[in-house]
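Bump. Still looking for Fumarylacetoacetate hydrolase family protein structure tokens.
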Amino acid sequence: MRIARFSIDGNVAFGVVEGDPSDPDGPVLDIIKGHPFAEFERSGKRVPMAKVRMLPPVLPNKVVAIGRNYAEHAAELGQTVPDVPITFFKPSTAVTGPGDPVVYPSFSSEVDHEAELAVVIGRMCREVPRERVQDVVLGYTCANDVTARDVQRSESQWARAKGFDTSCPLGPWIETELDPSDLGIMCTVNGEQRQLGRTSEMVRSIADLVVHITEAMTLLPGDVILTGTPAGVGPLNVGDEVAVTIEGIGTLTNKVIKRD
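Sorry for the wait, here they are.
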């Protein structure tokens, strides 16, 4: 099931995506009663996706991200895979949705794309045992961990490099019925392929990451885990269109603009 979050007539709602997104007539959204973090019913009221504004599929309390979880990506940065996962936060103000702009930060001159699989948490959880990880996951979506690389190199903490406004595009929806263990991940910039990898190349699995993170903190419904990026990260410039495509989910597209 694909669950989208959208705005229509000034109201925000969730809906189940019906139809093929590649169909010329486009898919429709069956608006649900309530929210997807509990049992819900479909209202039967359908609206064409083309007539709504798509929003980030969730607005998380926190985004917990993982660094250097693909060995080839660590190598391209001149780094090694750490003995313990590198974790950092992106604030909720970094989150932006499909089709929304990524605003190039004024304090950086080297901004990179990082295509990633994002895990959406479905229930409040802490100290999750490995055998229960799937019980706390609602589903998966595409993410772009946009990074001010020059700032990341110059500052020991990554808060500004990774957490600036619009640095965390998410979308286009949550896929709830998916085996995430071996999915293709691709990033293109202006139609040119930059990144191509598979989730099977992760050093640490999604189960590893959920167990590790929840040893330390409580995750809330709608929180997001970014699972790391494959090799091939590269620069973004004002005017570029960047797209993250993940097998079984879809494509998240954003355009880079200059801050007014």
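The radius of gyration is 17 Å.

Edit: fixed formatting.
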